[in-house]
């Protein structure tokens, strides 16, 4: 027997209903904010990701050579492909550009709860504006997508890399390794890398919870962003410990947590960055975020969220010799946008009803010769255990009203 690869999943019909429900919900909110959907290939040139993240990313990337010897990779994230697409096709478009996207990504990582080798991301990019209100609206959208999807227990943390770097420069403790350790929240290792005085100063710095306590000029823009977040009615927390290990990340950064998920609680991360010049484009303000779709779904389930029940199809059963008539009924019902299934096993009526009950159908249409002569069928309500003869022409109206 061949099993699925490690770190991947099969999804049951019930799981897919939940995933499609959440997917449509998130799409609708992106579009409410004026974002338009794009899509990029699942495979990209490996250089696209090493340019962005360094050679180290190869270790956790599904990288391979094609038959012509080109180095390719299954995409480990979606920002770089979208920026590559922008540089190739959209640099001359009117700004701001608002893109959103949804797709699967792949990382050769150690599978654990909420972390898989194949995972799905919703994300977006705001290209062309770094005005405080633009960044505030971006953060507000991220928060509202999660709230309007049904999550109740989420925490938004907002930091600033310009402020963090300015502080580290001031104490003489800034380098790539230190930024990487702060990004990983590895304070134990950080303490070894810093002098005792520097480490104490750093720990005091990241404890600051009010932007007014920071005197750097970069804090002025941050104050404006926070004022606009308040106008958008978004609760936020200042968190100066948010870092990114790569230099092209700049300015505002933010993360959203679902605390009930425990150690793997982060479900959204985003901020400002300067990636376009790395990919050969002209420098332009860019910001965006990515939502971990799988973790969001897990967080909803952990909170006991009740997903909307999908309307169950109608089931059409028929007596012997009435197959063609049953097909006429199933065609008519489907033409009125009502989901319908018919018996495909030539069961008896009693076996068909037994099957319909087991599968959870609410309504069953029984096609029988005597009723057919009167231009009628039998409509059975499986929950109420009631049935009645109804005119064939009235079926779509009756089914829609009883859905």
Summarize this structure briefly:
With 403 residues, this protein is α+β, with helices and mostly antiparallel strands.
Summarize the structure in words.
- By secondary structure, this protein is α+β, with helices and mostly antiparallel strands.
- It folds into 2 domains: 290 residues, BirA Bifunctional Protein, domain 2; 89 residues, Anticodon-binding domain (Rossmann fold, 3-Layer(aba) Sandwich).
- The protein has 14 helices and 16 strands.
- Strands 1-5-6-11-10-9-7-8 form an 8-stranded mixed β-sheet.
- Helix 1 runs antiparallel to helix 4 and helix 4 packs across helix 9.
- It is elongated.
- The mean pLDDT is 94.
Strand order of the largest sheet: 1-5-6-11-10-9-7-8
Strand content: 15-25%
CATH architecture classification name of the largest domain: 2-Layer Sandwich
Mean pLDDT, nearest integer? 94
How many alpha or pi helices?
14
Total beta strand runs: 16
List the secondary-structure elements in sequence, H or E.
Answer: HEEHEEHEEHEHHHHHEEEEHEHEHEHEEH
Question: What's the CATH H-level superfamily name of the largest domain?
Answer: Bira Bifunctional Protein, Domain 2
Structurally, the number of domains stands at 2
CA gyration radius, whole angstroms: 28 Å
Secondary-structure class: alpha+beta
The separation of the N and C termini measures: 42 Å
Q: What is the CATH T-level topology of the largest domain? A: BirA Bifunctional Protein, domain 2
Would you identify the regions where 5 or more consecutive residues have pLDDT less than 50? none
**What profile does the largest beta sheet have?**
8 strands, mixed
**CATH class term of the largest domain:** Alpha Beta
């Amino acid at each position: 027997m061949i099993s699925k690869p490690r770190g991947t999943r099969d999804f049951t019909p019930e799981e897919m209903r939940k995933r499609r429900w959440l997917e449509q919900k998130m799409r609708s909110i992106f579009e409410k904010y004026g974002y338009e959907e794009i899509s990029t290939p699942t495979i990209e040139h490996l250089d696209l990701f090493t340019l962005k993240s360094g050679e180290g990313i190869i270790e956790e990337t599904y990288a391979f050579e094609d038959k012509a010897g080109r180095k390719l990779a299954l995409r480990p994230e979606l920002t770089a492909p979208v920026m590559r697409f922008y540089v190739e096709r959209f640099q001359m478009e009117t700004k701001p550009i608002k893109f959103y996207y949804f797709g699967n990504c792949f990382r050769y990582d150690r599978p654990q709860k909420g972390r898989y080798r194949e995972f799905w991301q919703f994300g977006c990019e705001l290209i062309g504006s770094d005005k405080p209100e633009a960044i505030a609206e971006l953060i507000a959208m991220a928060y509202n997508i999660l709230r309007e999807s049904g999550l109740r227990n989420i925490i938004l943390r907002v930091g600033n890399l310009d402020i963090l770097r300015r502080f580290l420069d001031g104490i003489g403790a800034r380098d790539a390794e230190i930024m990487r350790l702060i990004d990983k929240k590895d304070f134990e290792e950080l303490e070894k890398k810093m002098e005792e005085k520097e480490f104490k100063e750093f720990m005091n710095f990241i404890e600051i919870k009010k932007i007014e306590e920071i005197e750097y000029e970069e804090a002025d823009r941050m104050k404006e962003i926070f004022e606009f977040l308040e106008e958008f009615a978004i609760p936020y927390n200042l968190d100066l410990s948010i870092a990114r290990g790569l230099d092209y990340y700049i300015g505002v950064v933010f993360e959203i947590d679902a605390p009930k998920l425990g150690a793997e609680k982060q479900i959204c991360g985003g901020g400002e960055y300067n990636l376009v010049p790395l990919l050969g484009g002209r420098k332009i303000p860019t910001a965006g975020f990515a939502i971990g779709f799988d973790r969001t779904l897990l967080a909803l389930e952990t909170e006991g969220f009740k997903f909307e029940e999908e309307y169950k199809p109608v089931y059409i059963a028929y007596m012997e010799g009435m197959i063609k008539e049953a097909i006429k009924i199933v065609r008519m019902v489907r033409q009125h946008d009502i989901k319908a299934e018919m018996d495909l096993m030539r069961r008896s009526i009693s076996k068909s009803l037994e099957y319909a009950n087991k599968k959870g159908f609410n309504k069953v249409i029984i096609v029988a010769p005597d009723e057919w002569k009167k231009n009628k069928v039998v409509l059975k309500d499986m929950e109420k255990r009631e049935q009645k003869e109804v005119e064939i022409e009235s079926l779509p109206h009756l089914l829609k009203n009883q859905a």
